[in-house]
Amino acid sequence: MGLGDLGKRLLVGRKLRSTQLGETLLPKRVALPVFASDALSSVGYAPDEIFITLSAAGLAAYAFSWKIGIAVALVMLVVVASYRQTVQAYQSGGGDYEVASVNLGQSAGLTVASALLVDYVLTVAVSISSAAQYAATAIGSLQGHQTIVAVIATLFLMTMNLRGIRESGTAFAIPTYLFMFAILGMAAWGFVRLALGNLPEAESASLHVAPEPGYAHGLMGLAGVFLILRAFASGSAALTGVEAISNGVPAFRKPKGRNAATTLLMLAVVAITMGVGVNVLANLMHVRMAERPATQLLHADGTPVGPHYHQPPVISQLAAGIFDHFPIGFYVVAAVTGVILVLAANTAFNGFPVLGSILGRDGFLPRQLHTRGDRLAYSNGIILLAGFAIVLILAFRADVTRLIQLYIVGVFVSFTVSQTGMLRHWGRLLRTEQDPTARARMQRSRMVNAVGLVTTGLVLIIVLITKFSHGAWIALAAMAVLFMLMKGIRKHYDRVAAEIAIDTDEDMTLPSKVHAVVLVSKLHRPSLRAIAFARASRPDVLEAVTVDVDPEETARLVDEWDHRGIPVPLKVLASPYREITRPIVEYARSIRRASPRDIVMVYIPEYVVGRWWEQLLHNQSALRLKGRLLFTPGVLVTSVPYQLRSSRIAARREDSPWRAPGQVRRGGPGRAARERTGIRR
Amino acid sequence: MGLGDLGKRLLVGRKLRSTQLGETLLPKRVALPVFASDALSSVGYAPDEIFITLSAAGLAAYAFSWKIGIAVALVMLVVVASYRQTVQAYQSGGGDYEVASVNLGQSAGLTVASALLVDYVLTVAVSISSAAQYAATAIGSLQGHQTIVAVIATLFLMTMNLRGIRESGTAFAIPTYLFMFAILGMAAWGFVRLALGNLPEAESASLHVAPEPGYAHGLMGLAGVFLILRAFASGSAALTGVEAISNGVPAFRKPKGRNAATTLLMLAVVAITMGVGVNVLANLMHVRMAERPATQLLHADGTPVGPHYHQPPVISQLAAGIFDHFPIGFYVVAAVTGVILVLAANTAFNGFPVLGSILGRDGFLPRQLHTRGDRLAYSNGIILLAGFAIVLILAFRADVTRLIQLYIVGVFVSFTVSQTGMLRHWGRLLRTEQDPTARARMQRSRMVNAVGLVTTGLVLIIVLITKFSHGAWIALAAMAVLFMLMKGIRKHYDRVAAEIAIDTDEDMTLPSKVHAVVLVSKLHRPSLRAIAFARASRPDVLEAVTVDVDPEETARLVDEWDHRGIPVPLKVLASPYREITRPIVEYARSIRRASPRDIVMVYIPEYVVGRWWEQLLHNQSALRLKGRLLFTPGVLVTSVPYQLRSSRIAARREDSPWRAPGQVRRGGPGRAARERTGIRR
Hints:
Chains A, B: This is Amino acid transporter. Chains A, B: InterPro entries: AA/rel_permease1, APC_K+_Transporter. The structure is a homodimer. The first copy, chain A, is α/β, with parallel strands linked by helices. Chain A folds into two domains: 340 residues; 155 residues, Rossmann fold (3-Layer(aba) Sandwich). In chain A, 62% of the residues lie in helices and 6% in strands. Chain A is built from 24 helices and seven strands. In chain A, the strands form two sheets. Chain A has a five-stranded parallel sheet, with helices on both faces. Chain A has a two-stranded antiparallel ribbon with strand order 1-2. In chain A, strand 4, helix 20 and strand 5 form a beta-alpha-beta unit. In chain A, helix 2 crosses helix 14 and helix 7 packs across helix 14. The two termini of chain A are 40 Å apart.
């Protein structure tokens, strides 16, 4: 990988430091697993959802399952085709948010951002819950405890991300490729056995599915159509994660757009192959699944299977059947599926800081999220994300089927708005483009995006109609709350910006004098240092001030002051209530009242400590004083630090670099700045 | 009350402001209720404890109850006599802590302080639990829910104290005098009825008390003696609160010491009268109480009263009997007893800041507790106090009898150490005193304190022996923890003081130059203000610095800078990881490395906001930067505040005065300082 090339391209006159190894651009073979894990992992639960939803109408409805699978595959092709246009048109990594903001305006962008944020939470909740299911099929003792397992897994992921794991390409590639080979290999072997005539049945094949009331005659009439649409909507959960690549274009090698588009295609091929393969095999092996297995699944004799029946996921049943002579194969499949689901959840933890950074830059979230290295801001975000996911897991008891109802609506809102934005994009370009070849290409892209818009719009409507009462309203409500919150934050920033904008030149008037005040309580090194520094700054007026909290101490201080001959006058302020803040603030105000054009510079010694509990013992009064002083216009507060020995521990700790998560997805150091040497003007 | 006098006495050349009305010295008639509520309230549970403890040996043991009551009264007389010496010898309000520290050293003082702190928590727990009992006797539906009632009452007290109620003398006087009149009146009426021959029996008089195994033959042998001693130890809970007056001597009018001593005597007379009266009447009215009433109290036919029997406190039973023709009297007695117990708990919330202030002054607790007006420090203390009390209430389910086991040991540790200190005190004075009248008086006082020491020491031993396994070990463990914590804090402060003590004169060397750096991110008013202030301070080198996080923004800034012709050079720092902290810290360090004798003054604009959530949106990066910069020696950080409009709300809020609790007990403004006008030297 050409670091030299990289260096010259991104920076003018300054080479990358060698410490930046590892944050380099990705080749397609590494980019595919990094960005595809989320999308591929949904094959672990999307086929299940189709069968589960159809089961309401009994066994006969299963016949539609592969047709629905084909429909979902077609939608995926359309969506991928649309995104291939997006990633080549917008290569900065802004993704759907950027497309919406640039083309449709602030509100559309915020809608997408809210949808994506809600989606992150649900990605964690759904993926972890599904992983818990797979864990329970492999380790029988976990059955019935999926909720606890899921919560613990989420906390584990949160902790790892708080510590700052390096999201390296290799760590993603191996498990993802293992997953791909395992599932494709299993499907291939399944078809081989089919050809050989010895494809066994699934373990649930002997069960009968009792239809729900209302579907006693199978899929008839409006109810039947509605059910098929519902199943299709659930199966569309397979499309979640496709947009991740559009956020990660900067991480690709050049030509970035083309490589990203190719990767999208690879993703689609693999995902569709896996999805359709699993779907078809599930039909051939007569997998039976239901939404409430305890009552809907019946034994051959008609008795319900009861509450102790633990419904294995489809892939689990396929593996158990296809590898019935090769038990290790079953555990391998269960393991890699569990791992890919955890990786998919991890993408949410990594994707959030990227999105948060962009939103912070635009002022929709606290601005400190924009500048990296603020470990604390990311930590808060990670904790919030994990917290909300855990709330969902607990509320829905790690039930993937119920969580999915919330999951899909956000994704398709994002898709639909994004396609609309792309249409606007092409329309705008076509108005000015003259070159016929380019025009033809743009019109082709516009057609693709139009088909994409119609498709995703249709699916969105289907999802809203079929899922709203099943839980989608929760997701929509959350999106609305986030939307208003972010709008409110932006309004605040706008108002402040208007308040502080420069309109006239009067802000450049210089104050006339500087009146320096040094706070001393005792005569010790920090005080002497503060006095020395204050003298060095050569103010117009310099005096030391102490507050008479304890008359004996004050008398001692005055004596020592005289004794040492300190060349700065000492003023004693009375304090009838034995507090230090009010007398000093009053004094500062009195100086300002006497000479309104002077500034008052208050020098406050501050202890720099190394351990957290030491902060409780020092500096508290100084902090409160600073806070109070800052309310008075024209008063500056200067902290004169005195580094205690214990601070050296902390200093060393602060210097070790902390890499914010998501570094890989942002394509390395990003646009590095050029340092201009020399003085301007 | 002569404010003018007060003014001239306490201050030289400065009169008290009129806003200090209300914090004046107390006459004895107001001081008695303020300081006696804690001690008097214990008559609400101490007689109960005597009976309950004796009940282990069955009915026959009750004969000892009045004798034990007399013994407790005698101990109280001795203790009060001893404290009369203390309050006249130490009039500063330091109380037992001061006596121990001055005369016996740091460890003894810390022992007393730990005992007092533990005692504060237990005062709240015991008093509130007892108040809950009285509430339940008056309001039947509260029976069985005392724990919840107690917790809610504690939270209520905590909230009131957090808001800062004015502990006014009148608020204390009325309920306390009501209580005294109610109990003394009830006792008097009881004796009148006795004389008239129609004193009824208590409601529990018909019950039989089954002795515990081991006491089948009543109070015999060692076990019997032990039981009597246990009952005596429990009854000594009546002495809690006597030391409060020694902490409040400054609040008395002159002659402070003599008035305090007289008030102590008044307290003793009232308390003993009430206690002995209640005890005697309880005997006369045949009150039956047991530690486990469900199994130990039997009906006439021998069946246990069972778990639904709610054992009313002694005073409750007395009132019910004596006022059987006058039901309002019962409710009045129950109500005033409940109120006085709540007031007693409140004294702990008010006493803690006083003790905390003294310990903070001496460096055993964080120093900011010493200077008043630090609302936050008090709030933390109040919350901690309430929290620990609630933990105890929950752990012991508001059971007064079990909580008492922890209560007494701290009090008597404090008494014993204090008496020892007083002995030392007199011994020291007698060594130098020549005047025979004074010597005689001192020797008399020393004899009193010696008797006090023997008495309290004996009681302490009895308490330790009889109560250790019943729960006193918990209190002792807590005292040990506090002791070590405070010693550790003091050791830390000593170490830091040694580190920062001035030993040579080299700290007075002035740095050679001041290199000012102004941080700008955009050109707006706060930035212009920071530049203007930095220029006004006339440093040797002045430059503005921005970090290149976003190349477009940086370019815009540079253009605008040139366009406005700002007379300060602008330097752009590269930031490959899009963070602002590290480049600035590196730059500051590079300046220091280049010229180690210069100081770097970093001017950082800071937004001053009014609402708490606005702080989340601004200043975060600035705060983190400040923290990091302070680790580098020779770097000062100056905050240039820009007051946003919303800050005016907060400014007004900060200006309203907040009175720390315990003001009344500290005798008003304390030793006010004298403001020295003019310049020294």
